[in-house]
Amino acid sequence: MPNKKAFLLLNGNVPNELPSFHSYDLIVAVDGAFQTAVNKKIPINLITGDFDSIQELKNTSTFIERIHTPDQNFTDFHKCLKELVKKGVKTVDVYGANGLEQDHYLGNLSTAYQWSNELNLVFHDDYGVSFFLEKDNQYKFNDCLNKTISLVPFLDAGGITTKGLKYPLKQESLNFFKRIGTRNVATSEEIQIHYTQGILFLFIQNKT
């Protein structure tokens, strides 16, 4: 099965800067985000959702694939990811996941975790990127000097070792209700992160 990459637009706040769309195999909008895509001239080629928020669907190009997913037991984001997996997608850059009602963002994080074993999901906003890290992997990130780095456990993470941060961790544990690793700062261009237990979510913020 091919390892496809998708751009996915959700119905939240869209970042001011959008990527080049040439690197994506699929450019997708979920339900109400379709109108935003039209306004921003994003070249959508797939729309999914229950279509309860789309006002101009009948007038869209016949070259845009439509997948109706009416099951109200799941969010449009969840149902869209299910369809993308069927199409051989492995990496999804998600835009518009936060902003507006914050309960939507929490729901989007929950959905991202549920699909984290099958998809490489990266959230993008005006402040940076965020994503789940797989345990036992040795991660290296470049161009990080002076960026704010936050490590958030879901709900626990252990055996965490970092390099290149102002406040390094050495085989330490984080707990969502007791100790989380927010607002650290990269002191070098390259940072390294490794952990062995639990679930860890990483934020890399843009330079200020």
Write the layout of secondary structure elements.
Elements (H helix, E strand, L loop, with lengths): L3 E6 L16 E5 L2 H7 L6 E4 L15 E4 L7 H11 L2 E7 L6 H13 L5 E6 L2 E6 L5 E3 L6 E16 L8 E4 L5 E5 L5 E4 L2 E9 L3
Parallel strand pairs: 1-2, 1-5, 2-3, 3-4, 5-6
Antiparallel strand pairs: 6-7, 7-13, 8-12, 9-10, 9-11, 9-12, 9-13
Brief sketch in words of this structure:
The chain has helices spanning 33-39, 76-86, 102-114, and strands at 4-9, 26-30, 46-49, 65-68, 89-95, 120-125, 128-133, 139-141, 148-163, 172-175, 181-185, 191-194, 197-205. With 208 residues, the protein is mainly β.
Rg, Cα atoms, Å: 18 Å
Distance between the termini: 41 Å
Shape: globular
Number of strands: 13
What's the story with the biggest beta sheet?
13 strands, mixed
Percent strand equals 35-45%
What is the string of helix and strand elements?
EEHEEHEHEEEEEEEE
Count of separate DSSP helical elements: 3
Helix content: 10-25%
What is the average per-residue confidence, as pLDDT, rounded to a whole number? 90
Protein architecture, described:
The chain is mainly beta. It is built from 3 helices and 13 strands; from the N terminus they run ββαββαβαββββββββ. Strands 1, 2, 3, 4, 5, 6, 7, 8, 9, 10, 11, 12 and 13 form a 13-stranded mixed β-sheet that branches. A hairpin with a 2-residue loop joins β6 (120-125) and β7 (128-133).
